[in-house]
Structure to design on (97 residues):
């Protein structure tokens, strides 16, 4: 079984961030209160090539926190963890503190 996945072309491997379901005081949060579909970039592919042959790099880098579409991506399971593969153009944006 594979331990590491290196995405090809303009693909991005993302681990989805699961929001906490309760506060530190123990109050249960409703599911809709923290509905931000985000993830952490684990690995990126080398990029793709344009029609003229120029290399087009991927727009995010490893470690970035990104905003993901509600649907889409390919689910990948490596060991016990679940990841999702997205194309670079499917990423909606990056999140910053």
């Amino acid at each position: 079984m594979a331990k590491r996945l290196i995405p090809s072309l303009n693909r991005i491997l993302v681990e989805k961030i699961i929001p906490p379901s309760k506060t530190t005081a123990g109050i249960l949060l409703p599911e809709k209160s923290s509905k931000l579909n985000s993830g952490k970039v684990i690995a990126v592919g080398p990029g793709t090539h344009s029609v003229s042959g120029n290399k087009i790099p991927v727009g995010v880098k490893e470690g970035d926190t990104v905003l993901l579409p509600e649907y889409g991506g390919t689910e990948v399971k490596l060991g016990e963890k679940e990841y999702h593969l997205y194309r670079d153009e499917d990423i909606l944006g990056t999140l910053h503190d």
User: Anything to note?
Assistant: The beta strands are 11-16, 38-44, 48-49, 55-56, 65-67, 74-78, 81-87, 93-95. The mean pLDDT is 85. The radius of gyration is 16 Å.
